[in-house]
Amino acid sequence: MGSLHKFNPDDLFLYAVTDSGMNKKWSRSIKDAVKAAIEGGATIVQLREKDTETREFLEAAKACMEICRSSGVPLLINDRIDVALACNADGVHVGQSDMPAWEVRELLGPGKIIGVSCKTPAQAEQAWKDGADYIGCGGVFPTTTKANNPTLGFEGLKTVCLASKLPVVAIGGINASNAGSVMELGFPNLKGVAVVSALFDRECVTTETRRLRSMLMNPVSRS
Question: Of the candidates 137, 200, 197, which has an alpha carbon nearest to the alpha carbon of residue 171?
């Protein structure tokens, strides 16, 4: 079944990535977290629920799909191709240790969005060859969500952006205080930032999303 949302690289502008631990910490359902992020201006959502049971995840994904479809915001599922197929999500995001993008494409078909996490030019090249639509590059800054994840910094991000034939979204430790500086790097294929803690490990997801969006749209005005 094809996606109702055709991929547009501009959708990567403010990429909200959920986290089951943060939702539990703040006593939020996945659905409520996604709804709040979209209300704040998130342009794409990824459900990354590593600690959620399959049935619960699927039910939440179906509920989130309804919200995203009504808002015109694409919804991707992290890694779980079975869940993506079952809820007819707009696509899947995979890491280097997950199923290769070309196999994901064979399962999902040509109409779905596929993203791949990349740290090196070689990985970015492979993602392009495998038929991915975009790559996620990071961690740009240190992050608590992936404690053992090496930090690339601006130089690492620059190297991947310059080598990539695909649109790039930066991820890793990005928040309202540094998101503007990431986008000011000015690489043509750097289309946005992906954010976890700075949106979902906060009391009000909508307020934080709105604040981050404002910083991205007006980076020179940040304090």
Answer: 137
Helix H or strand E encompassing 77 = strand 75-78
Whole-angstrom Cα distance, residue 109 to residue 81? 12
Task: Express each pLDDT in 126-163 by its tens digit.
Answer: 999 999 999 999 999 998 776 667 899 999 999 999 99
Rounded Cα distance, 111 and 6, in Å: 7
Please state the pTM of the whole predicted model: 0.94
Q: Are strands 91-94 and 75-78 parallel, antiparallel or unpaired?
A: parallel
The 10 Å Cβ neighbour count of residue 98 is 17
Please give the positions annotated as active site: 48, 117, 146
Cα dist. 107→1, 111, 148, 153, 187 in Å? 11, 11, 31, 34, 32
First to last CA, the chain: 46
> Containing H/E element for 14?
strand 14-17
Per-residue pLDDT of 62-84, as tens digits, reads: 999 999 999 999 999 999 999 99
**CATH annotation of 9-221:** 3.20.20.70
Tallying the residues shown for the chain, one arrives at 223
Task: For residues 207 and 50, give the distance between their C-alpha atoms in angstroms, rounded to a whole number.
Answer: 25
